[in-house]
Amino acid sequence: MTRQQPIAVLGGGSFGTAIANLLAENGHHVLLWMRDPEQAESIRTLRQNPRYLKGVEILAQVEPTTDLSSTLDACELIFVALPSSALRQALQPFAAQLGGKMLVSTTKGIEADGFMLMSQILEQIAPHARIGVLSGPNLAREVAEHALTATVVASQDEALCRSVQQVLHGRTFRVYASADRFGVELGGALKNVYAIMAGMAAALGMGENTRSMLITRALAEMTRFAVKLGANPMTFLGLAGVGDLIVTCTSQKSRNFQVGYALGEGLSLDEAVSRLGEVAEGVNTIKVLKCKAEELQVYMPLVAGLHAVLFEGRTLDQIIGVLMRGEPKTDVDFISTDGF
Ligand SMILES: NC(=O)C1=CN([C@@H]2O[C@H](COP(=O)(O)OP(=O)(O)OC[C@H]3O[C@@H](n4cnc5c(N)ncnc54)[C@H](OP(=O)(O)O)[C@@H]3O)[C@@H](O)[C@H]2O)C=CC1
Ligand SMILES: O=C(CO)COP(=O)(O)O
Question: What domains, with CATH codes, occur in the chain?
Fold first, then answer.
């Protein structure tokens, strides 16, 4: 990739916009693809995204576009910041243009059919592309407002990791590399579910002990699940595991947390989602995860509990009772007993 070649960001939502601005700050020409011509025109003329990240100035080097085919042709490095529900449908028609490109998913969701992560979908659509993921504790607004932030680029393709580090690393944004693409991506998708629970607990006035218990047991539960799928548990101790879990379970800026908060205030799930008006991936992930955990026979009491409240007509009080009175367990699953 030459310095003159533009970099593509697909998706004109909060995260796509934040990433596009970071790249532009580092001197790159960015093609920010979105589906809505009116939104593109507003960005072109007002240098603000009218719907997402209000108040954030979009730099001149970010060029909004609605022409996906030309965007893909012009760029070798492509960040994908589309919701998980849209990624396959948006890119499948352009599969022939993706061979040899570096495709980096920033999307933290799971496709129900086949339990596929977004980078696996990219791999399926474009078997000859070079694939990576970007994930970590990266609330879009904080990234855009230059809060000191770290993230992880994960791929077995070391050159791809280096390219992403080169273009994104900057004054306020540090990019760490990992070879564990699956673990990094799974961490980003799973934590959304626990952020919904944390939002509910916050709305109900539960205390800091409760939040700490929830985060820690969530980490145990998601790690147990990931190990069953063959992931490396150590990845969950990094930014894309516990790092992202902490930020989404403690911040009102997290959309998944906000959905949980609204549920805790007594709104229905539909009301909570429509009040948000943005993507909260955890709402779909909880369904997919519950099924997969049952199929794999992984013990995930928090996931089962949230699912029961959202979709099986159980009350939160009933579920809290079940969780707290469950049989006593050991604290850390992965402590070796052979001398360490
Ligand atoms: N926001 C954050 O803090 C972070 C988000 N992420 C991940 O990034 C992904 C995107 O989230 P985010 O940017 O926040 O979401 P937003 O809700 O802010 O924006 C979603 C964007 O996707 C577009 N979109 C929706 N459906 C389609 C479609 N079928 N075709 C083309 N474009 C479509 C929307 O367009 P329109 O406006 O026209 O509907 C909008 O531009 C999620 O998986 C999220 O988990 C990752 C890290 C941080
Ligand atoms: O993934 C995120 C922060 O790392 C954003 O979380 P939300 O999608 O819940 O806003």
Answer: 7-179 (3.40.50.720), 190-325 (1.10.1040.10)
Ligand 1 pocket, mutate which of 43, 92, 279 (most atoms under 8 A from CB): 279
Looking at residue 340, what is its pLDDT? 38
Residue 4: predicted pLDDT: 77
Say how many Å lie between the CA of residue 30 and the centre of ligand 1.
17
Q: Which residues pair with 167 in a beta bridge?
A: none
Q: How remote is the CA of residue 148 from the centroid of ligand 1, in Å?
A: 22
CA of 106 from ligand 1 middle (Å) equals 10
Decide if pLDDT at 333 tops 90. Answer: no
Beta pairing, strands 149-154 & 130-135: antiparallel
Structure-token match 């052979």, residue found? 338
Quote the ipTM score: 0.98
Over residues 288-329, the pLDDT tens digits come to 999 999 999 999 999 999 999 999 999 999 999 999 998 888
Residues in contact with ligand 1 (CB, 6 Å cut-off): 11-16, 34-36, 51-52, 81-84, 86, 89-90, 106-109, 138-140, 278-279, 281
Residue 232: strand, helix, or coil? coil
pTM for the full predicted model: 0.96
Which residues are registered as beta bridge partners of 116? 111
For 146-187, the DSSP string reads: T--EEEEEE-S-HHHHHHHHHHH--SSEEEEEES-HHHHHHH
Q: Output the pLDDT for position 279.
A: 87
Contacts of 220 (CB under 8 A, 6+ apart): 332, 333
